[in-house]
Amino acid sequence: MSEKPHVQIPMEPERYELTAAPPYHFDLDRREFFRFLGAGILVVSVLKQAALTQESGGARAGRDDSLPKEIDAWLHLGENGKVTVYTGKVEMGQNIRTSLSQGVAEELHVPISAIEMVMGDTQLTPFDMGTFGSRTTPTMNLQLRKVAAAARELLIGLAAAQWQTDRQRLIAADGKVTDPKTRRSVEYAALAKGQQLTQSIPADGPLIPATSWTVAGQSVPKVDGRDFVTGKHRYPSDHKLPDCWQGKVLRPPSFGATLLSVDSQKAEQMGATVVHDGNFVGVAAPDAGLATAAVAAIRAEWKSEPQPSSKELFDYLRKNPVEGRDPTGDGDRYETGNVDQAMASAEHRLQQTYTVSYIAHVPLEPRAALAKWEGDNLTVWTGTQRPFGVRGELAEAFRIPEDRVRVLMPDTGSGYGGKHTGETAIEAARLARAAKRPIKVVWTREEEFTWAYFRPAGVIDVVSGARSDGTITAWEFHNYNSGSAGIRTYYAIPNQRIVFHATRSPLRQGSYRALAATANHFARESHMDEVAHAVKMDPLEFRLKNLKDERLRAVFEAAAKKFGWGKSPAPGQGFGMGGGYEKLGNIATFVEVSVDRKSGEVKVVRVVSAFECGAVVNPDNLRNQIQGSNVQGLGGALFEAIEFEQGKILNGRMSEYRVPRFSDVPVLETVLLDRKDIPSVGAGECPMVGLAPAIANAIYHATGVRLRSLPLVPEGLKLS
Amino acid sequence: MATIHLAVNGRPYTVDADPQTSLLTVLREHLDLTGSKYGCGEGQCGACTVLIDGRAQRSCITKVGAVAQRPITTIEGLGSGDQLHPVQEAFLEEGAMQCAYCTSGMIMSAVALLNRNHQPKESEIVEFMDGNICRCGTYPRIVSAIQRAARAMAKAGAATGAGR
Ligand code: FES
Ligand code: FES
Q: Is A442 on the interface with B (CB under 8 A)?
């Protein structure tokens, strides 16, 4: 099996996810690791350049004191046989604590129950940029498999040395090394006993091919599922410390307001500690009720600035390019062939504009952090997708070196790209320093709706040229603000001009599950449908005519078959499709809607997704992720939108912002194409991108009404 | 402030709290029962669901003063000893969770439903559970888990019935 990523078209850089590694890195050295973890064997990677020459020598074991001090520990096998694995990735519902354990169990040949995963702790785990972009499966799963394989090879080597025999004839299985000839066997624990061995990760250690997997590739239950169904697991908002107080922050009345004056006398009389530092005003009090009351008692004067509203949003985005940013710069523009000429000579020419609103992530657990100072050392427990990034934010905010900050991420109540930042961590740490005790800050739902960030809104202009036989000859695509993820087309079109235009955003915006791929697929796949109708072709036939990519063709064909594409609709019924390629996964989504012509109610009745993301690691979890993507995607497709005016969010409460519920859920069917010959990639995002255009296309099929804005039917369909 | 006597998971507790405080706050802050979650604070998401007199209630909008002495069950009080409640078992078996932040509220609502309707139809499950939000979108699996639990409970009921 080739471990090279199978790249169909280059991945676009995503401006919301570019985060550089810190320039320096402090860590425990090897001896400290053993003091901390106990004897055994340790698989490490080496950070210093000088060490790379040693690594290239292949797998080497031994008491090598010439190893440099700066190492990252990935796996420890203790004298009791317990395996501890360290990764900077974090768990927030993607179920990677389980799927990564599966990869380790597979390579090391130990039961999953022998493995403990230490995740997202900046002091113990190797540096990691963050958990986003569906990169855990393609990168971390592979990395940990290599780590586990290195440990396995070391153990086999130890047994061979002990028995003075050829290592080739030894087998590792069930936590033991066995010699099938002599029937001798030795437990890993016995091999690790009294050892202090370090093994660096070889560049090409032997990995078990997907076709021979027995643990990976299976549906295994969530490793710590019991803690979740009994309420025992402590999420960030559940963490507590002795003498801990609660913190609360005074919020401006509108975005961009400046603080003129503060009178906090009353709050102080109530027994709260008040902090006024620059534009930050917050309180700490023994309990949340008192903290809330104290904040309410602060009198503050603010100066507000005029702000755009959601009514004029799309106009605003077009008219406010980011100055000083060259819209033709690298990564923002792609051009091939001669678009203008091809457009001029096209038999059919179609120009349309599509828009997407801001939407909120609404992670069910709002942001939360618990902060504690010991002298100049800061420890923070918080729910974030970027523990190392938040460590950097804290170091910068308090002007202390990063090695004085430790960030831990307990398994968290979801993120969907919405928890990249460390707002509560900084707030809690600032209050803790003033109150001289641990402080916990948990945002209210209203704070989460208002002071987190949103999925970017956007305007997308598409112009296409096609021949009457259904061949697309020219394609021009301009995206204003929503982002460049998934902006390139996978249809084989000789003349293309694709441009991303950075603009000023009225609201704070950032990552969201699948990023701009949702917007770009919505525009592209809606437009494909419009052209198909213009040239009077079946939308599936039209797509396949213009699609050369075999993997994408395969998912479209598989979904069409399962869906039963081609049958004629009953009155009020409509069928539509959308699909594409994102984060190295391939998706095709077919949808059935029913539209009640009288009430205007649109119901998504059935969704069939065909998905291919290389070799399947855990089919049950994959189905769970695809279902989840589709259910969450329904909200943004049908009714979710943030409304705002004068720097205020108008619908920032759960009672005012509708998210999908049980009664919104259609019949969801999934076809998994398992490609054992292609390395696995992630599935948290890609399955979402086909849904919105498929629904829009199905509504058109049912009613003849073409909707070009997300959300499609926030107030039902207006049929004149 | 007032002294309030609570009966939670079969145990008596005495707390000093403003009777207007939400039950959720008292459970989480005073009793350290953090299995009930905050998701919205306005009765919209169901993450804070507990049983009061066997009925599902949103503890975020229930004032603690109003539930003194009434039997309250939280997720920590389900099942007995090491034995999980059939609904908890069913959620595990169906893998009916991703981040699982909604899970305790879902399980408590499901238990309340099955207490009064032993064989709910799918449409009845959807209707009863519609006040509980799973932002990760695991709804189909939660429905399957509730159906599975109903079957398991019916079987167990029949078994104990036959033994009598
Ligand atoms: S927190 Fe009680 S219903 Fe949402
Ligand atoms: S599993 Fe995350 S909210 Fe339900």
A: yes
